[in-house]
Design goal:
single chain, 183 residues, alpha+beta, 4-stranded antiparallel β-sheet, 3-stranded antiparallel β-sheet, 3 helices, disordered N terminus, DUF6907, DUF6907 domain-containing protein
Length: 183
């Protein structure tokens, strides 16, 4: 496995500094690195053709600036609702075979982004969440920090199971197969 080099994660990767040495414990007791955003926040501005201006916070980690001018006043609510702050991150390149047949091809899995949509359409304040792109059209969306921790724990548990249970079984099964099918 290697990190996908499709540029998906370059947007936010250099905008935060994390140090494991200065880690702190979460409520669950797990150690987590201290991170700080390196790029300063800015302001986005959307101006309508009749001169009305809407502004908002543009996080330093956001990949794109949604600022616009000359927006038709009747489309302003839609333009504001469509604002999404995003910082993508790379996944891993894994060889996959659709339907389980053939040699397959390398696809990026477990890539994703940290997203924050300021206009959530609810009374809840917006917060950045992680959206994980499993593969092609499959995503796990809206992961808050605790959800992301559970997802990471599930991945670690599966990786441990593959390494400590499935791999030894595979070795034993291969030895059994070889013993009963001499070449």
């Amino acid at each position: 496995m290697r990190s996908s080099g499709d540029g998906r994660g370059e947007g936010g990767a250099d905008r935060a500094t994390c140090a494991g040495g200065g880690s702190r414990r979460s409520r669950s007791g797990a150690r987590r690195p201290r991170c700080r955003v390196r790029a300063a926040g800015r302001t986005w501005t959307i101006t309508t053709s009749n001169g009305y201006t809407a502004t908002g916070y543009l996080p330093g980690w956001a990949e794109e600036n949604p600022s616009q001018t000359g927006v038709r006043p009747d489309t302003l609510p839609v333009v504001l609702a469509d604002i999404s702050h995003r910082a993508p991150f790379d996944g891993q390149l894994i060889r996959v075979a659709p339907g389980g047949y053939g040699p397959g091809e390398e696809k990026a899995i477990l890539a994703g982004s940290i997203d924050c949509n300021p206009d959530t359409g609810s009374a809840e304040p917006p917060e950045p969440v992680v959206n994980v792109h499993l593969i092609e059209d499959y995503w796990i969306n809206g992961l808050a920090p605790a959800d992301l921790a559970r997802f990471a724990a599930a991945l670690r548990a599966q990786a441990d199971r593959l390494d400590h249970e499935i791999r030894p079984r595979l070795i034993a099964y291969r030895e059994d197969w070889t013993a009963h099918h001499p070449t």
